[in-house]
Amino acid sequence: MKNVCEFIHQNLDQCLTVKRLSQVAHFSEYHFHRQFSAYFGVSVAKYITQTRLKRASYELCFLKEKSITDIAMDAKYEFSESFSRAFKKEFGISPMAFRMNPDWLLWNQKMKKTTIPTVNVMNVNITDFKETKVAVLEHLGPAEKVNESAMKFVQWRKSTGLSPISRSRTFGLIYHDPAIVEPNEFRFDICGEVLKPIPNNEFSVVNKTIPQGRVAVLRHTGSHDLLDEKVHYLYGKWLPESGEETGDFPCFFHYHNFFPEVAEHELITDIFLPLSGRT
């Protein structure tokens, strides 16, 4: 079923019929519905709808220049009214209200996250990371509300002209496992690479440094919802078997691109685990 999920994400703008998807899965059309529901916990129609509405949610918040009508059409709704009804039914809020004041905590409660099993063998490399100065917006609070902080950081970036891709690498420093720490104690730094210190600003963005040192690197391709699976692999399997020891800096991510600017299956994120023996 993993190949079906990938096919859906790769062809989200196309007409996705049960017949076509059953062919991708190499299952009989008569049994495909039950197979899919048993694997993912939702019907194939519901999964497709949720995936399109998830993309629409991000477009509403991070692509402000894109009209709701165009977002509705991308989500395969012929009329904005139909899109608004479907969006409100799914998330309990209209698209316009969500664009104006997104409640990411409620959104995450409504959005069912689907786990796609991955291979057990992962390619981990050890390399040296060069010292990198970063501008940081510090998030403190539920992990489900990180997107609220991300929107604020994007506003700051636009005000400074620091493009996320062409001029400045984007990092995320994760201090806690959200599954273990209390929600209000979860810390996460949203970082953009800078060449010189930034001045005081209204967005509360501050200066920090990611230090030079040895790191284990694991590349993740796909949804950020599944990053924790790779992080757990690094800590729980790779680290004990490697004989390495962790360094004195938290695990961090390098985001090569962003959703919804690219499809979720095209997202590329490098996971860095600092190791002892810094130079």
Structure characterization notes:
By secondary structure, the protein is an alpha+beta fold. It has two domains: 2-110, Arc Repressor Mutant, subunit A (Orthogonal Bundle), CATH 1.10.10.60; 124-274, Multidrug-efflux Transporter 1 Regulator Bmrr, Chain A (Alpha-Beta Barrel), CATH 3.20.80. The chain contains ten helices and eight strands. The chain has helices at 2-10, 18-25, 29-40, 44-62, 68-74, 80-91, 95-100, 104-110, 146-160, 227-242, and strands spanning 124-129, 132-140, 170-174, 187-193, 206-210, 213-221, 252-255, 268-274. Strands 1-6-8-7-3-4-2-5 form an eight-stranded antiparallel beta sheet. Helix 4 runs antiparallel to helix 5. It starts with a helix and ends in a 5-residue tail after the last strand. The model has no long low-confidence stretch (mean pLDDT 89).
Total number of β-strand segments?
8
Structural class: alpha+beta
Write down the CATH topology of the largest domain. Multidrug-efflux Transporter 1 Regulator Bmrr, Chain A
Approximately what portion of the residues adopt beta-strand conformation? 15-25%
Break the fold down into its secondary structure elements and pairings.
Layout: H1 2-10, H2 18-25, H3 29-40, H4 44-62, H5 68-74, H6 80-91, H7 95-100, H8 104-110, E1 124-129, E2 132-140, H9 146-160, E3 170-174, E4 187-193, E5 206-210, E6 213-221, H10 227-242, E7 252-255, E8 268-274
Antiparallel strand pairs: 1-6, 2-4, 2-5, 3-4, 3-7, 6-8, 7-8
